[in-house]
Here is the input.
Amino acid sequence: MNIPFRRKFEIWPVVVLIPAVLITASCTKSTAAAGVQRPPDVEVVAVQQKDVPVYREWIGTVDGMVNAAIRAQVSGYLLTQNYSEGSFVRKGQSLFEIDARPFQAALDQAQGQLAQARGQLAQARAQLAQAQAQLAQSAANQGRTQMDVERYTPLAKQQAITQQDFDNAVQNNTAAIAQVEASKAAVETARAQIEASNAAVESAQAAVDAARVNTSFTHLASPIDGIAGVAQVQVGNLVNPGSGVITTVSTLDPIKANFTVGEQEYLTLTRGGVSDLAKLELELILADGNTWPHKGKFSFVDRQVSPSTGAIQLTGLFPNPGNRLRPGQYGRVRAAIGTRTAALLIPQRAVAELQGAYQVAVVDDKNTVSIEQVKVGEQIGTMWVISGGLKPGQRVIAEGVQNARPGMQVTPKAFLDTVESKGAN
Here is the structure.
């Protein structure tokens, strides 16, 4: 009975040692595996070579095609606002109304004075007719007395009539002549009165026209079709010609984009004449980085170069359906001004900038990483033109460069742009 019991306790150490050996072997394998690290994964892209358009970009400001400032032309209290701010208004639509009662009263008074002047003109014309009739009668009387003198003269020489009768005939003729002259003066006076009355009528008519214009100025109407802005004056305020702009109406479709270029660049763009600018197809890059879907065209160039900045303003026109673009917005105006042949292209994310220098991580045929300094040119979409430091077909790291070091072995994989992959999905 004692012998089996002893053997049982002798077997336990062997059983305990087996797991220990297995654990030790496992640790040895893990240590060996940890000593051999797998090269990190990176995404690479080959340097492309192709002809690409050369773009230029300029900072632009969006402005309305026509911006009509609405101002008060007369003094008065603002009674009503007849439009919704930011809404589309038509030409001739009333935007504001000023109290018209004082101007209507002035118009009524001017019309009364015009009627009075016209009455005086009619009276002067009647007086002229009366004076002309009096002149005709005086002329007829003078003709009769003249005939008496001519008839009495030979009779007086023959003493066929008394001297008294002859003298009376001469005196009557002299009086008739004087009456004719007086009638002529009356006619001239009547004509002068008509001229004065005509002048009074014209003056009264001008006063009526002015009063009518002032009355019409109490209705502030839009001179164009467009978008009306915020009202700068509230209903009930006293406005006058010196109050400034009450609101502005802008024509927004098409809409202008004003941008400036340097004098040298302007000369380059117009080397074949200003008409070269009309050939440019303009793009507008908005503040959020998106490109306006409608292409623009060149409109005009300013008349002079600014002596203070050495730049000249150019203006492009862009379709603006729905009036989404508004005056005052900033953007970048871009145009293709030529073509660069056999340009080298790599993704922008493959280029790193360090203290003004640009560098890329290159993977050779043995999948070894090296850092190369490069010279960069224009940016075209998500690509960057490389003007020096790379050759066509070289592989550069576009993703995972943070895991790579010069001289390190890497596992290259094809670069898949996140934006492109999202678009493909």
The chain has five helices and 21 strands. The helical segments are 2-35, 101-157, 163-216, 263-269, 418-424. The first strand starts at residue 41 and ends at 46.
